[in-house]
């Protein structure tokens, strides 16, 4: 059975996944066998011909089932690829926003340190003026 693989998919290695794939393949084979079983029954009054028409009909049915599976799988893969693309763009957005927030925090930290230095300087100057003023009062 042909399977559709995307560039980003990796081979299935998990035993439970292999069992699930085998189960699906077996189900498809059963479906095709049951679907073409009526072609094997002889029609009253009809002369049996070599297996060529049966094989052609069976192959057409198999191709039809494969086409249906590829359409369904193709749609699903397309939706998954769109979702992956959206998630990647969201990841990039979150990364950019994280960097922006880090820059903002760094800016606020620098501003806070500058404010604390200015406050200390002002407090030291006020204390020095107070001492000078107290010294002048006592004299």
Could you please describe the fold and organization of this structure?
- There is one protein chain.
- By secondary structure, this protein is mostly helical.
- It has a domain at 50-138.
- It has helices at residues 15-40, 52-138.
- Helix 1 (15-40) runs antiparallel to helix 2.
- The longest helix has 87 residues, at 52-138.
- The model is unreliable at 1-12 and 46-52 (pLDDT under 50).
What tags apply to this protein structure?
mainly alpha; disordered N terminus
Topology:
Blueprint: H1 15-40, H2 52-138
- Spatial separation of the terminal alpha carbons: 107 Å
Helix content: over 70%
Strand content: under 5%
**Radius of gyration, whole Å:** 39 Å
- The number of helices is 2
Low-confidence stretches: 1-12, 46-52
Order of helices and strands: HH
* Total number of strands: 0
Outline: rod-shaped
Round the mean pLDDT to the nearest integer and report it: 78
Would you tell me the structural class of the helices and strands? mainly alpha
The major pleated sheet works out as: none
């Amino acid at each position: 059975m042909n399977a559709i693989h995307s560039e980003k998919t990796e081979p299935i290695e998990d035993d439970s996944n292999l069992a699930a794939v085998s189960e699906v393949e077996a189900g498809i084979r059963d479906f095709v066998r049951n679907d073409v079983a009526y072609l094997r029954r002889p029609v009253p009054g009809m002369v049996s011909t070599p297996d060529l028409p049966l094989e052609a009909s069976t192959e057409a049915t198999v191709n039809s089932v494969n086409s249906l599976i590829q359409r369904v799988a193709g749609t699903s893969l397309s939706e998954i690829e769109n979702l992956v693309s959206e998630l990647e763009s969201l990841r990039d957005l979150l990364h950019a926003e994280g960097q922006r927030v880090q820059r903002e925090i760094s800016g606020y930290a620098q501003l806070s340190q500058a404010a604390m230095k200015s406050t200390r300087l002002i407090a030291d100057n006020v204390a020095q003026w107070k001492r000078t003023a107290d010294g002048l009062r006592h004299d």
